[in-house]
Amino acid sequence: MKGGKPINTRELRVLLKLLEERSVTRTAEALDLTQPFVSLVLKRLREATGDPILVRSGSKLVLTVRGEEMIDPLRAALEGIDRVVGQPADFDPKKAEGEFRIASADCMEAIILPSLVARLREVAPGVRVIVRAIDQAYDYAGALERDELDVVISNWPGPPQHLKTARLLSEDVVCLFGPDHPFAGREEITLDDYLAADHLAPVARSKADPGPIDSHLAAAGLKRDIRVMLPEFNLIPHMLMNGQLVFTSSANFARYQCSILPLSSLPAPAECGSLDFYLLWHERAQADARNTWLRQQIMAVARSLK
């Protein structure tokens, strides 16, 4: 505005209401303002635009051509300001569309994902759920940063520090084996028997991160004999059926596999530690209503498994 104070956002909101109501009195009532203040704003806007905006036609006020042209761009501009500086809209799962993108450690697929997907389908029926596994080559931290993922469910500690972390649950560790394994029929597995056994394990994420079981054993100065490593986690239970291999995993995973295959499990030696599962997300999504809601659903499902 030449030679005067610039028009502020509050005055633009008054202008929009004036254009919509075509009345100083109704505008003042709608915005809980005094009529003199609304009249003053109208005067300033007339001076700023060089147009009367509202003119009298008989007993009522009507918009000038310029006033009519102002409505849509002014409404769009104020909506844009509200999106930038206003409070984000609440997430309504019943009306939501799009995708929930989740990356998961393989061992979680049978533990948490069935219950989670069922919950999401019920409360957010319009949203597709896309789950991908995490392999050695997958940069999950970069995918979170690039908004290619919403969350990651993992069973390894020490994620990159720029990621947000919440503990989901802690699982007992058990040994899973087939009906012909020497452990079948026993009541316990000693540490010596465990270390002497032939083990099956998923392929390690990296040489620096052999996985939680081997990390616990290494901390105790121990090492198991891994004879077979598989890249596909879901193949592991079938590999146990006819062999002399043992697989060390979480109690919930073993319980599920024993319910569908003739497998057995026993508690692993204490030196194997426990399996802790985490929820990871990026700082950029910390305050996002959609991401916050999804994290709440995952944590609720995890609590139900404890």
Automatic annotation (TrEMBL):
SUPFAM superfamilies on file: Periplasmic binding protein-like II (SSF53850), Winged helix' DNA-binding domain (SSF46785)
Domain of life according to the entry: Bacteria
GO molecular function: DNA binding; DNA-binding transcription factor activity
Ranges of residues in domain HTH lysR-type: 7-64
Keywords: DNA-binding, Transcription, Transcription regulation
Keyword DNA-binding: yes
Recorded family membership: Belongs to the LysR transcriptional regulatory family.
PANTHER family in the record: HTH-TYPE TRANSCRIPTIONAL REGULATOR LEUO-RELATED, TRANSCRIPTIONAL REGULATORY PROTEIN
Record-given protein name: LysR family transcriptional regulator
